[in-house]
Amino acid sequence: MKRLLIALVASSVLITPVAALAQPAGSFEVAQNYDRSRRPVDRHVDRHVDKHVTIEKRVIVKKKERWARGHRLTPAERRHMAQVRDYRYYKLRPPPRGQQWVRVDNDFLLISLATGVIVGLATAR
């Protein structure tokens, strides 16, 4: 009885790796052919694709604003302007109390802090 039991255990240990290798050859590929809803996917896909590329070039002309004295800046415009702290570097006069220099593109504007009105203009060199 002992010998029979040992023979069964030994044979099962030897046959297990062989049985694992005996899977059908395309089982992985078959599993890949099913989508999430377990429906078979059609293997015959038309691989010919007509490619029509059209390129449209759009020319965007940015209208440069012309700043003028007395022009009032909205708070949204003032948020997008860079404040100039080192006005001496740009050879600008010191701003009076209640005014500040801001840089827009290549222009310097002296604006009133309270109202947003342009008091003075300067162009960078």
Report on the structure:
- This protein is an alpha+beta fold and 125 residues long.
- It contains three helices and four strands, in the order αααββββ.
- It has helices spanning 2-21, 27-32, 75-79, and strands at 82-83, 99-104, 107-112, 118-123.
- Strands 1-2-3-4 form a four-stranded antiparallel beta sheet, with no helix packed on it.
- It is elongated and about 110 Å long.
- 5% of the residues are buried.
Topology:
Layout: H1 2-21, H2 27-32, H3 75-79, E1 82-83, E2 99-104, E3 107-112, E4 118-123
Antiparallel strand pairs: 1-2, 2-3, 3-4
Keywords:
single chain; 125 residues; alpha+beta; 16% strand
Largest sheet: 4 strands, antiparallel
Strand coverage percent: 15-25%
The averaged pLDDT comes out at: 77
Return the string of H and E elements: HHHEEEE
Rg (CA only) = 40 Å
How would you sum up the global shape? elongated
Helix content: 10-25%
Q: For the terminal residues, how far apart are their CA atoms?
A: 106 Å
Helical stretch count? 3
Low-confidence stretches: none
Number of strands: 4
Strand order of the largest sheet: 1-2-3-4
Instruction: Name the structural class.
Output: alpha+beta
